[in-house]
Amino acid sequence: QVQLVESGGGLVQPGGSLRLSCTASGFTFSLYSMSWYRQAPGKERELVATISRFGDTKNYADSVKGRFTISRSNDNNKVDLQMNSLAAEDTAVYYCSAIRISRYWGQGTQVTVSS
Length: 115
Prior knowledge:
Layout: E1 3-7, E2 10-12, E3 18-25, E4 33-39, E5 46-51, E6 58-60, E7 68-73, E8 78-83, E9 92-99, E10 103-105, E11 109-113
Parallel strand pairs: 2-11
Antiparallel strand pairs: 1-3, 3-8, 4-5, 4-9, 5-6, 7-8, 9-10, 9-11
């Protein structure tokens, strides 16, 4: 069955870094664009970053441009999100998502930025 499993979340101090990973299985990973979304408490889920099938196109939310980097490995069925210069406003549950015709979601990983 389709699975997207996120990892790498945790507690980090403001200004710190985290690297999230999402490992996919159960579908042909290279056929799907991949995205990271996040949802903070009391807020709607928002798109953070998207990467095209072969990684040649990347798009970011204005709030994370210059701080976050999305990357993927089609050989390893994995998409990563490198997050630098983290701030309290980045605190959220981060979700991995695959989209082509169908959309798949992971279960999410908590990122908490706090001193």
